[in-house]
Amino acid sequence: MEKKLERMKELIDILKEASKLYYQYSTSIMTDFEYDRLYDELVMLEKETNTVLSNSPTINVEYEISDALEQVEHQAPMLSLSKTKSVSDLESFLGDNEGILSWKLDGLTIVLTYEDGKLVRGVTRGTGTIGEVVTENVKRFKNIPLTIPYKGNLVLRGEAVIKYSDFEKMNEELDDSTQYKNPRNLCSGSVRQLDSNVTAERNVNCIIFALISCDDYISNSKLEQYNWLRSLGFEVVEQMKVNKKTLEECVKEYQEKIKTYDIPSDGLVLTYDDIEYSNSLGNTAKYPRHSIAFKWQDVTEETTLRNIVWQTSRTGLINPVAIFDTVELEGTEVSRASVHNLSIMEGLKLGIGDRILVYKANMIIPQIAGNLTKSNNIIIPDKCPICNESSSIIQVNDIKYLYCTNELCVAKLLKKLVLFCSRNAMNIDGISDAILSKLIEEKLVCSYKDLYNLGQYKDKIINFEGFGLKSYNNLMDSIEKSRSVKLANFIYALGIPEIGLSRAKLICNKYSNDFDKIKNLTFEELSIIDGIGDVIASEWIKTFSNDKFIEEVESLVKEITFIDNVNSNELKLENKTFVITGSVY
Length: 585
What we know:
alpha+beta; seven-stranded antiparallel sheet; five-stranded mixed sheet; globular
């Protein structure tokens, strides 16, 4: 008994630390598969010992609250759902009742309140009891009606999500090291922004999954309530009406659909269609009794780890990627998976030749589920695989990462230039990664500025394989066009850690697109900008304190012209007269 209690305490500490890092810092110290395995072990031990400790995650809901947003108490507490991976458990839960089977969406839960036909409040789930007010951000969601024909008080719950297609488009503009990890984390950060303009750029959708309260009686059927909400203009979660006989086949239908479903989902939810019956069941300490979540039974395949490939990013982060014998998962062949960071690699005790289990998280992203042999023989390289200069292990929020210490690393330079030339940066069209690699290899480009002096190498460049005079002329035209650029795009192009285009716009707008002012901003001047926190301000100061960076930027600025200026924009309406007729509401 004592050993089991000690193991329970150990599991609680591990799970709570993993949850904190995942929800507050968007950082993983273990795979979802490993988290679920440890959670299930804790549940089993609690049943065996008939003991539940007060800080157990099985009775406490993970939460995320920011001090910067107004907090309010929810009208009705939002509890987690009990979970199963067994269809037979779903059948037992449903019994002889009719149920509604729908997607369990993987985003951020939002409570919407409408009064007199107008959206008046949007609040995050937060702790389940207290949430954060994000009304202005919710108004920037792509598919939320700001006004509806129903004039009574209406409270709804929905899931804010970013579709995979939109997520991939945003990541196309970023290099490996700055790409967003997954749609769920990006959505959470987007909804909880202090600047609603950032939210607007992120293509957030809200899918409604529950009617919480309404001034008028609509129906005792959950399905009919969904149909009513759809008639008001809301996008409602996709659902099927099921009974004990049809349930298994419907689960299989969803299992097939998720392979191409554009909205992130990590399973299904089964709830009773009869609302009065559902309400009569009440709740446990953590779960409502009217619904149950179904998580996909992860299909794992055993294979052999053949290699760990180390990939250097623009920021110098060296990521481990596992290479293994090809296996078929969810209808596709898979032979590699990111290990994310050194902490996960060490936790798995990976070694070349190990027998490992691999799966697709949410049936999409290849992951390592476990290691059967745990030889733990991977040697962490002390040199960058690209430039052969020293590497260093850095620990951030209890997570260990490997970095290249060479500021002139070719991998850093290539990925810096890829970002610099991208559409939302300097927008130099027609310069591919392959051409940039060749220019670096031939030592024609060693810095940003060198791109604007390629004319002196015309004879050499037109003789590149597959290039020629026409390609050269197109490239030079595009480079010339990029000499005129908006300051925010230029700032983004510089690849400052944590500074995407949206944050670059925040800074530029605050300080009137004055580059001389912006490059010398103090920590305090940055911190007063909504959406710029201490971490971002610190990264900015650190970057602009680097003499090499300043030298490169100042030489680059001589080659370009900033075309925007807040003051000139404000004068566009000067000396114009406007006459407004008709009614103004």
